Amino acid sequence: MTETALTLDDAEKTADLARVERVARLLDTRYGLPGTRLRFGLDSLIGLIPGVGDTAMMLPSLWMIAVGWKHGVPAGTLVRMGGNAAIDYVIGSIPLAGDLFDLVFKSHRRNAALLREALGGAP
Prior knowledge:
mainly alpha; single chain; 6 helices
């Protein structure tokens, strides 16, 4: 019975990590500018909406942190994930400079990588 529970937990961990990585890709690197290596996602686009965009993009960040908490990710990793989200929110809220910052600072991808590392590189 313990083996089955472990297998179900591993399957849930793998599924949650896959969801986090899909969302991170959509938000940070889904689109590219032709002829350049510049990639951006919905975070950069929605962040253009003054007062609402960066706040809305904080919700997926909080969800990623909650997924980490659910799977027992160490507190230090959760703090780093929160720091990435806070940096993205605070600097991203600055008109124009924040929008340019969002093009290079991929907080969701960073947090997905931290989560993958903390979960032992689940497949």
